[in-house]
Design brief:
By secondary structure, this protein is α+β, with helices and mostly antiparallel strands. The protein folds into 2 domains: about 55 residues; about 110 residues, no CATH class. About 35% of the residues lie in helices and about 25% in strands. The strands form 3 sheets. The protein has a 4-stranded antiparallel sheet. A 3-stranded mixed sheet has the order 3-7-8. A two-stranded antiparallel ribbon has the order 4-9.
């Protein structure tokens, strides 16, 4: 039977010859910096969440001033956020309650360093299409029907842009040459 003190003694003996290369102060400073960063991100996420809820509440209670009736709210058809290692996470929401504004999505993607052509009801490509789509986009369809993708802007080839075709029941993705003639189909 090993007692706690015997185990402590064996552990101390096994690490007694090791030299620590990083000072304790550096380790503590790094931990504090990470906690501050995590708190900042959590606070920002909470603020964005509250703002989204407030905007949704305002949209849901909007009234038609002429008739005094509550109008149908149009919910945002996409969510775009920073992902890991410089990537962006995009969720395209599906359903009759969503209306995608292709220009708003294009601007949001551009703000994340992603050049894109966004279309609704049609899919566009160029001839030839640039290679590398698998390095730029990974994604899956969620059980709700929403499409979730991760976009790696650094993998987009020079002179290329992402082409997104948004349809009620599916979404197409491709890489196209910038400033090349586009071939679009419904």
């Amino acid at each position: 039977m090993i007692r706690d003190t015997d185990l402590e003694h064996k552990v101390r003996e096994s690490v007694s010859g090791l030299q620590m290369q990083t000072s304790v102060e550096t380790i503590i400073d790094n931990a504090r910096r990470q906690r501050r960063s995590r708190r900042t991100m959590q606070s920002a996420a909470a603020i964005v969440g509250c703002a989204a809820i407030a905007l949704a509440a305002l949209g849901l209670t909007a009234t038609d001033h002429e008739s005094g009736r509550t109008s149908n709210a149009q919910l945002a058809a996409f969510t775009l956020s920073d992902g890991p290692a410089g990537s962006a996470s995009l969720t395209l929401h599906k359903g009759a309650q969503y209306r995608l504004d292709p220009e708003a999505l294009r601007r949001a993607l551009a703000a994340h360093g992603i050049p894109a052509l966004v279309t609704v009801g049609k899919s566009c490509d160029t001839n030839p299409d640039p290679d590398g789509l698998d390095e730029v986009v990974t994604g899956h369809r969620q059980s709700s029907g929403d499409v979730f993708i991760t976009i790696n802007p650094a993998a987009i080839p020079a002179g290329a842009e992402l082409s997104i075709g948004y349809f009620p029941n599916h979404t197409t993705f491709g890489l196209i040459e910038q400033n090349a003639p586009e071939h679009c189909r419904a």
